[in-house]
Amino acid sequence: MNQGTQIKLILNLGDKVKISPPIWMGNRLEVQPGDLTRFAPTGTGVYGYFEPVSHPFKGTSVHEDSGGVVYFGKNHDKRDFEAMLRLLGVHTEARDYAVFTQAATNPIDYLHQMRIVSRFAMRHMYGALDDESYKRFEDQSMTVAEILRHFIEANFDKYRSGRESLTGLIGGDEDFEIESLAFGFMVENSYHQVYRIWSRAWLVTK
After folding, report:
1. Total-model pTM
2. Which of 30, 146, 182, 191 could lock onto 73 through a cystine, CB 3.0 to 4.6 A?
């Protein structure tokens, strides 16, 4: 079972969204949009791209006014999340995007992750679409905001239902430190609309 099929079953995405394969349609691209080990650079490409840096003052392009990385836990509601997306400049109503997913091999880093790559980025950033396939690219049935929210709720359902436990996953002792579910969200590239969300375990201490 490949990673895309695995996470589709785990998170019960069903027919809500089309999951793309890690290798885009057999294309030999310099950088695959489904390679989730790499992060998209910032910038429009007109003046070049800029590799992400960890310094908080320098972590974005001078050509972008919003974006970045946000970490958040379970104590939020739909309105909070949607407000965060608006502040980060996410194109929440878009439906023309590809989805790439991966389940973790090391839960210290993340549990599940999902990357959203706009049709525009697939064509102009990754070169995964030619002019004809760009025109034929089919919209998803869910908006960007809806699939992001579904990812969060699916992770909550998975761990709350007891189908899989976080206990001891990252070293919790079930006494002083207990694992709980949280998330990260990143605007990888604002101009090209490349976004990533991941679930993660964190340790709640007494």
Report:
1. 0.82
2. 182
The span from the CA of 148 to the CA of 28, in Å, is: 29
Question: pLDDT at position 125, please?
Answer: 94
Q: What is the 3-state secondary structure (H, E, C) of 159-175?
A: HHCCCCCCCCCCCCCCC
When pLDDT is averaged across residues 138-145 and rounded to a whole number, the result is 96
CB-based burial, 139-166: b 16+ in 10 Å, e otherwise: ebebbbbbbbbbbbebbeebbeeeeeeb
Is residue 41 within 8 A of residue 16, CB to CB? The reply is: no
113 to 8, 67, 110, 172: CA distances (angstroms):
11, 18, 7, 22
Phi then psi for residue 6, to 5 deg, are -60, -50
Q: Shortest CA distance to 33 belongs to which of 24, 42, 41, 25?
A: 24
| Average of per-residue pLDDT values in the chain | 85
- More confident site: 164 or 19: 19
Residue-wise pLDDT tens digits, 95-108: 999 999 998 888 88
d(CA 19, CA 101): 7
- Give the single-character DSSP code of 88: T
